[in-house]
Fold this protein.
Amino acid sequence: MKAAIAKMKGETTKQSVRLVIVDDHEIFRTGVRRVLQSDGHWEICGEASTGDEAVRLAQELKPEVIVMDVSMPGTNGIQATRSILSALPGTKILLLTWHTSKELVRSGFAAGASGYLLKSDAGRDLIEALQTIVGGTTYVSASIGM
Amino acid sequence: MRILVADDHDVVRRGLKSVLDARTGWEVVAEVANGREAVTQAEKLKPEVVVMDISMPDMNGLEAARRIKKTCPKTEVVILSAHYTDQLVRDIVDAGAKGYILKSDAERDLVIAVEAVSNRRTFFTTRASEMLIDGFRHRGEAPSPQALARERLTSREREIIQLLAEGNSSKEVATTLGISTKTAETHRSNIMRKLELHSVSELVRYAVRNQIIEP
C-alpha cells in the first residue's frame, strides 16, 4: 500500500487527480474545496449538489475520484455510487458522512465505494483518505472502529 | 467588518471562512470550535458579528449566544443549524440572535444574514420566517408547560444539561465548571424537577430533541 501511495504521489507531482465534489450543502462543498486546494494535487473538475446530478456529471466528466456525501435528498450518495460504478467501474468513490453507523459503511462498500470518511474528521484526514483510495486500497475513518 | 466563526467541524469552518473572507471589507478574525471559546474570544476581540453553529461540544451555540449578547451587546449573532424545528427558532430568538440559517442554505443566504445583522436587521431562513409570521397570527395562545419549564431554567442549569447529556458525571461537571460536587448535584436535581425528567437517559432524549446535543 505504501508503495502504491508513493507511486501515486510521484505521478501527481506531474499531473493532478481529476475529482468531483458532491454534497447538498454548499458551505460544506466550499470547505472541501479549500482543503483540496491547499494540498495542490487535485483538480476539481465539477461539483454537484444531488445524487442525480452526480451521476450525470460523472458520465460527462469521467473523473478519477468522486468525493460523495451519503445523505442527500432524493438519490442518496450510496445509490448514486451504485449507478456511477455500473457505468464507470474504474471510478474511485470516497463516501463522506456524519454517521458512524457500521451498517451504513457496509452498504457503502457493498455499493462499490472505495472509502468511507467521517465528515468530522475530514479536515484532518481527507487528503490521506484520497491518497489511499487512489493508491488502490480501501479507506475507513479510524474513529468508526472497523 | 470583523467576524468570529464558531463551529466544531473544521471543514465547515473553512467553508464559512472562505465565503466570509471573500467579501470586500469582511474579515474572519478568529475561528473557534466550541461555545465556551466563542464567548471568550468574543469578549476579547469584540467582533461585529459571530457566526456560530448551534450543536457544539462543551457549550452549545445557544448558550454561547446568550452570554455573548449579555457581555457584548453590540455584537450580533447568526446561528447555523443542521436541522430545523419550530421550537429551535423560538429558542434562537430568545437567546438574542438576530440571524438564523440552515447549513443546507446557500452561501448567498449566509452573506445576506451577516449583512442584515450587522445593520441591526434580522434574517431568518425561509421556513423560520414563515413560522414566525404564523406565530404572530396566533399570538395569545398559552405556551406549553414544557416551554414554561424551560424558561425557568437558569443559564447555569442549561449549561449543566449539556454537560450531563454528554455523559459527564456530577463530579466531572463540578470540575469543568469549578464548583463543588454538591452544588453540581443540587443543580442536577433542580433540572430534573423543573423538566419533570426521571433519569439520565430521559435527560439525554430531552437534550437531543432540543438540539442541545447531537444524537
Summary: The interface with chain B takes residues 24-35, 119-120, 122-124, 126 of chain A (CB under 8 Å). The beta strands of chain A are 17-22, 42-48, 65-69, 92-97, 115-118, 139-140. Helices of chain A lie at 2-14, 26-39, 51-61, 77-87, 102-110, 122-134. The two ends of chain A are 18 Å apart (CA to CA).
